[in-house]
Amino acid sequence: MKRNRIALRLSLYFFMALLLFALVLGGVFTFFSTRQTLAFYREDLQNRAETISEAMFEFLSGSAPQMNDGNCGQGNGQGRGRGNGQGNSQENSQEGSQENGQGNGMGVGNSLHGTGFGAYMRFLDDIAMADVWVVDADSRAITPGAQHAWIEYGELPEDGEEVIRRALEGETVFSEGFSDLLGEATLSVGVPIGGKAGEAPLGAVLLHSPVQGVSDSVSGSVKTLLLSMILALVLAVTTGILLSLKFTKPLTLMKAMADQLAAGDFSAQNNLAMNDEIGQLASTMDQLAGRLAEASQESERLEQARRNFISDISHELRTPITVMRGSLEALADGVVSDSRQVEEYHRQMLRECMHLQRLVEDLLELSRLQNPDFKIECGSLELRQLSEDVVRAMRRVAEQKNVPLETSLEPGSFPLEGDYLRLRQMLLIVMDNAVKFSPEKKAVKFSLFRQNGRPVIEISDQGPGISQEEVSRIFQRFQKGGGEKNTVGTGLGLPIAQQIALRHQIEIQVETGGEGACFRFLFPLRKDGENGK
């Protein structure tokens, strides 16, 4: 893993993406979970407050069953009553004297004689599972439940009076301002008692419930989510590492192959069968390796050809230079003084100079023809006229060797596109070899005919022929047929003829048997498909 940097980087990227996803998911979940839980809690608290308000309205209006307070000393929560201006209320002693007059402290039309208002408040606390306060609309007296002592208006928080005022006006109001008074984080809701059908509310109910349950619920959900995310991250990162290693394995193989190619081993192959971009890259690298192998072989072949060329040209130059140097040394040292011998030495040196000149010219000619940038001058020509010109030029040479020339030219025209002088040079090279290797009185035949619509020139002789081993090498530089008996020529004629044929898209076929050799030139069809009739 340490050496596989791509896999490590992919794993880190994967982990960072997952971590960011987990953080965003956790934050969003916490935010919306808190809002949803709080909204549900507010709705539940409001429903409970409205239920208590309805029950309190029934109690105050006298439609609810009366409850007997077993302990009169707790009838008002503090053992004392408050008057509402419609009757006298006497203080109750702390030993438990019963409520007198309207000792419920509520200025409603019904008197609460003999009713257990304190017990009713404790009952409401129990069923509401929260702290219930009742506020009188007339006297604005606050009657808390059993959990608190008597509450004065001056003890209320800043927005406490506002909550009570709005509740007494018929609104449902939420507040968190009672938290300091109650000693813990609390959500409070105020709802009116009655006040429907256009009537003024008889009072208000304040229901206080700690929000610790909300926090605990959200905290539990967040903890569960956190543990789930940690477990998911561990599993996801482990899976990401394994997938990264699997993903980078082909890249590791391709890197190893690239190292082999850099080291010169062009036989390396990936052999990866993957139907994606990595598979395409691996296939391209395999093809590249094959091309490099071919290029390496071709480079080795060219290098070997270069070495052979240098060796051959050195051999070809050595003989005439050696002869010329020996002749000049003999003349300079006075070893040869006879006028006839001096003249012979001069002639010998002239022949060697002419041989060197021809060798250099042939080398230059071959180099030009092998150069792709060298342009030949193509034009319209008549192959019959070219054939007659070649035969006419070689007839004098053949007569000097007493070799008859036989021609067979098929009637009709043979139009062609090509370089007249180069094609003439190609045919003269082959004709010169045919005459040179033919015995006396053995004819050399020159034929022009059509074969499957293509013009064909065939030059055959009756000489010693060419061995099968030599046939494959006759178009190489400095390859001379006839063995040691052939001391004339540079061995560059047939390579030059082959290059001219390649430039004109001419196919050369060589046939040889027990006696003689036959060179067949198959010319291409013209672009219009017509080569004469």
Short description:
The chain is of the alpha+beta class and 533 residues long. The longest helix has 57 residues. It is rod-shaped.
Number of DSSP strand runs: 12
Radius of gyration: 60 Å
Structural category: alpha+beta
Distance between the termini: 78 Å
- Strand percentage lies at 5-15%
Number of continuous helical runs: 11
Helix content: 40-55%
Order of strands side by side in the largest beta sheet?
Answer: 2-1-5-4-3
Overall tally of domains = 3
The description of the largest β-sheet is:
5 strands, antiparallel
Query: If you average the pLDDT, what whole number results?
Result: 75
Low-confidence stretches: 68-115
Order of helices and strands: HHEEHEHEEHHHEHEEHEEHHEE
| 3D shape | rod-shaped
